[in-house]
Amino acid sequence: MNMAELKGHPVSIVEMGPRDGLQNEKMQLSTSVKAGLVDRLAASGLQRIETGSFVSPRWIPQMADSAEVFAGITRLPGVRYSALTPNMQGFDRAVQAGVDEVAVFAAASELFSQKNINCSIKESIRRFTDVCAAANAAGIPVRGYVSCAMGCPYQGDVPAADVAMAVRELMALGCYEVSIGDTIGTGTPQHVHDVLSRCLQEASADKLAMHFHDTYGQALANIMSGLQLGLSTIDASVAGLGGCPYAQGASGNVATEDVIFMLHGLGMDTGVDLSRLIDTSHWICAQLERHNQSRVALAGLPVARGA
Q1: Domain of 292?
Q2: Does the residue 256 lie in any domain?
Q3: Which H or E run contains 19?
Q4: Which of 24, 101, 138, 242 would be 82's cystine partner, CB 3.0–4.6 Å?
Q5: Which of 254, 231, 296 is nearest to 12 (CA)?
Q6: How many domains does the chain have?
Q7: Which CATH number do you get for residue 191?
Q8: Is 285 a catalytic residue?
C-alpha cells in the first residue's frame, strides 16, 4: 500500500497506557486516577482501551486493583474495554469485572520463554487453551500478543519463522487478532517488513496488529513499514507511558499522540481528537510526576498552514 492509498484508509488504535504503560511505571496510582485516565482516553475518541490486567499482584502490583478500575470507569458506547488474562483465575475475575475482551500473550523467542516460564513457545501458548475455550463459550473475543518479535534480550536475533509459528498457534486457539511486539525496540523498517511479511503467510493483514516500542527511536518508521503491508491496527500508549525493562532509562511504548499526529498527516481516519488526547497526556504525567515522552505533546499542535 503506497502513501496515496493510505489516505482516507481507516485505522484502529489500541490504547495501552492504562495497562502496559502503568504496569511499567514506578509510581503506584490510586484507583480513581486510573479510572479517570481510562475515561479521558475514551472521551478523546479512542475506542479500544486495555484497561487492566488480571494477574497475580505479586507479579505486577500496579495492576492489583484492576477489578476496582473496571468498576470505576464510565463506559461509553462503542468503546471496548479489555484486560490481560494469563490464566483461568484471571479470566474468571475479568468476566466478573465485565470486560469486553481478554488477551493472552506469548514470546517469539524460545530462550525468553524458557527463562521466564520454563517451557517452549508452543507449550506456553497451549497453556491458554482453557482461557480461550472459556472466552469462546462466553462470547468474549480473545486477542493474542507475541512479544520479542524483532529481538530478544537473552537470545538476540529471533527467526521470523518462530514469530509466524507463534501467530499460527494463537490463531488456532481462537484469537481473532494477534499483535506483533517489538519488546526491546530494536526493530528497523526493513526488519519489520521481513517479519510481518512472514506473519502474513499465516494470517491476513486485518488479523495482525503492530506493537512497537520506541527504545531506539524507530517506532514510527516501523509503523509505516507495517502500514505499507496493509496492517491497520496499532498499539500505542498515551505520553509514551511505560519503559523498556531491558534498557535502563530507555523509552518504551510509542506515544499515542505521536502515532495519531503521523496518521492524520497521512490523511488516515483515526476518530481521535488529538487536542483532547494531548490534554490527557499532560494530566497523567502530572499524576505520575514524570516527564512526558510524547514529542507531539511537548511541542503542541502546529499553527494551521496559511494562518
Answers
A1: 3-299
A2: yes
A3: none
A4: 101
A5: 231
A6: 1
A7: 3.20.20.70
A8: no
Identify the pLDDT of residue 91: 97
Is the per-residue pLDDT at 257 higher than 50? yes
Average pLDDT over residues 227-251: 84
51 occurs within a structural domain: yes
**Angle, helix 219-228 to helix 189-199, in steps of 10 degrees:** 40
**102 CB contacts (<8 Å, ≥6 apart)?**
82, 83, 84, 85, 91, 94, 131, 135, 140, 141, 142, 143
Cell numbers linked to 82 = 479489555
Q: Which of 148, 152, 175, 244 is catalytic?
A: 244
Contact 105, 84 (CB under 8 A): yes
The reported pTM is: 0.95
Query: From the centroid of its chain, how far is CA 69?
Result: 18
pLDDT digits over 141-159, tens only?
999 999 999 999 889 999 9
- What does DSSP assign to residue 193? H
The answer to whether 231 touches 10, Cβ cutoff 8 Å, is no
Q: Which three cell numbers stand for residue 147?
A: 512479544
- Gap between the Cα atoms of 37 and 25, Å rounded: 14
Residue pair 188/221 in contact (Cβ under 8 Å)? The answer is yes
Predicted confidence (pLDDT) at residue 86 exceeds the cutoff of 60: yes
Residue 181 to residues 62, 209, 235, 278: CA-CA distances in angstroms? 21, 9, 9, 25
Which amino acid, one-letter code, is at 106? A
Cα gap 141→37, rounded to integer Å: 24
pLDDT band, very low/low/confident/very high, at 307 (cuts 50, 70, 90): very low
Question: Are 110 and 117 within 8 A, CB to CB?
Answer: no
CA 307/CA 304 separation, integer angstroms: 6
Q: Is residue 72 part of a domain?
A: yes
Q: What does the mean pLDDT of the chain come to?
A: 94
